[in-house]
What does this fold into?
Amino acid sequence: MSWELASLIVLATALVAGFGWYERAHPGSRMLALVATLAALAALGRIAFAPLPNVKPTTDIVVIAGVALGGAPGFVVGAVAALASNVLFGQGPWTPWQMVAWGLCGLLGAVVGRIAGRSLGRLPLAVLCGAAGLAFGAIMDASMWATYSGEQTLGQYLAISGTSLPFNLAHAVGNVVFALAFGPVLLRALLRYRVRLTHTWLDAPAPVSGPVATGGVGTAALAALLALALAGGALLATAPPASAAASPAQRAATYLARAQNADGGWGAVPRARTSAAQTSWTVVGLAAAGYDPLRVRTRGRTPLALLRSYASRSRATADLQRTAIALAAVGLTVPRDLRARLRADQRRDGSWDGLVNLTSFGIIALRASGSSTSDGAVRRARSWLARRQSRDGGFNFAGAGRSGIDDTAAAVQALVASGLRRSRAVRRAAAWIAARQNPDGGFALTPPGSSNAQSTAYAVQALVAAGRDPDRVRRPGSRTPLAYLRSLQQSSGLVRYSRTSAQTPIWVTSQALAAFARRPLPFRLRRR
It folds into this structure.
């Protein structure tokens, strides 16, 4: 077997493995669109700087994609960028080498991001991109050695490397310059996308199964009406007295009960496919308002089996945290193996993934699981989180940058849960939130901006956790945060994300319900 054939087999195996890894992750449409956009941007960067030999931002974009999004997306961004840009530069035996080389640059970014934290500083990120440029050059030297040298000896490889050294150094230096210029901005943007948008999706409504009525009320319709009646009846069994029957909390809870799927869970919208995120946050919202989610059933099924399933198969950090919080909220014991996985994901510095929001929910999940405020894992996370407070008093999800309401609210609840309710950090963060209230009474994701129900609900929970009355937080002539939430509630009980949103995920109503109940995380429903 020739060196050329052997190298092509190795490259093909690497590419099939990389793309197969990405495919097995079942990326959503938003992630697919982001990966395609980054690959196109990396390819265009190579084309735009073609007059400067080996000076191009392609490697930086691929590395940053790996740091922010993970190994599989980073590999695909690099491989697709090489293939797409060679439509212009010309395809040849060098193409698979470039695809693998840039794919490995994305994988390198993911490994470093996993070890050192995704929120890398400007200088470490620049050093990483420079090193990736040198690694890319070494691989491409190997391509020349295996394909064109004729003699695959160490001396031949060193000769090729010596000849290409100026170009490889130009590549590395260019990477450093580009990373210093735009690296942190792109990384923060991708991290925000990863944390926010990849967890907020709207599934298409599932088709109605069963017989279809052709006149009068069919069996499927009767079953649906019966399911709604059972759900409403189960909810009313734990509902407050009749005097509070028309309260915003009751209407929101009734809406959630009626939106339950036949498997006992919830999707993004009524009748949409059940998801772990929507189900977990829905049971948290119901439990916050004092309802027992395990008594809400459709066709005899409650969320219990789903919660137990999520507890056994959750692996991602956010899934582990959310499941632990949901199990505790409904009064169930968090399984020992889930607690162990949650602790195993915590880094030595006390954080989870080096991110403020994951560390905040990590603390909340530990406390929900029964850990005390003196627990070593809680104390390390608390110390790490407190050090990430910005000068203005707020928090940014990546630990640096503009403070956001959601991230600050989560940090406040976590610090309070860790035993720091009376600390200066909590007071400053609560004051920062209160000072960012919009004239309509609500709060924006990143002030200044338009108000939305999710950020407002988080703000209410944080203010309550810090010991502040949300009804006293109002600008002159404006409404309170809870009044803003009530203004977004429809007759069905649904709380819209904002005044302009066309569709709203169910978990927004769940979060609003927790705000109506004035219950910060974590809490535990008392089993009857």
In short: DSSP finds 20 helices and two strands in the chain. The radius of gyration is 26 Å. The longest strand covers residues 443-444.
